[in-house]
Amino acid sequence: MKGLTRRLFLLAFPVLLLGIVFAPNPKLLLGDFVGRHVQIARNLAGIFFFFMVLTPETAHPQLAALQHVVQGMHAHTDSLDSVSALDRAIDLVDDFGWNHGFLINVGDVKGKILDSAVQQRLDNGPGELKLAVELGTFVGYGTLRLVRMLNHTGAEIITVDPDIFAYTVSSSLYEQAQVRSRITMKTNYSYNVFAELKKQGRTIDFLFVDHVKKLYLPDLKLAVASGVLAKGCVVVGDNIRSPGAPDYKKYLLEGDGSKLFSTEVHRTHVEYWRLFPDEMTVSTYLG
User: Fold this and answer.
1) Is residue 7 domain-resident?
2) DSSP secondary structure string, 80-137?
3) FRET label pair with 206: which of 98, 152, 158, 282, CA 20 to 30 Å apart?
4) Looking at the structure, do residues 128 and 214 belong to the same domain, yes or no?
């Protein structure tokens, strides 16, 4: 009997230990007092692991890119004004993407297509470009390119991403570029932001779509149905081929979207990786 009890204990102990370590709320398993101390021990272990074992390069490429920007900006602190700080921050992200790691922001090559699309909207109207919205912030690189193109205007720039990590990294990048006050950050989902704009009676003049690829088409349709796209709004879609948004492309070129949008497809390559082809779409909403 004692042998059976011992074997059961040996089987149950690892299960209990795993429960203590991985349980979402150890207080439910162990009670308030012991459970709270398990939470503290977990957090201390996580902090120790992060500071003593991980480096920014191994923790996440977003952190590594931010560290690269911070170090590069510090090397030029005395000679940077707000305009040159913005250019320098953009260049440093590109330098990291090409030479030190890999990132999934739009990058410098496709970034020129984005810049050209903004200029197209500025030149051709109709009317003033008052509101630009970016779906998908990541490190904040695309936002910086929008700021650079629109800095001489009164346009509001909103970037939307529900990921708190993206918010943390990108807001730090904006500070380095000295443009944090120029950007409205929404740690939210696109459909909530569209609903908010609709309630305010505001419309989007430029939309940069660079978030979850399977959401490109639903979000574009939602924007149209909600009435938040201004006539003449230019909509830029990234990564149309790699990793791909085939339903979005088909809708714009062959489906109902072809009656609502005039679309150009730009053939290019994946950001910071010339071997892999990619495409961007630049669409004008006909209203």
Assistant:
1) yes
2) --HHHHHHHHHHHHHHHHHHT----S-HHHHHHHHHHHHHHHHHH-SS---EEEEE--
3) 98
4) yes
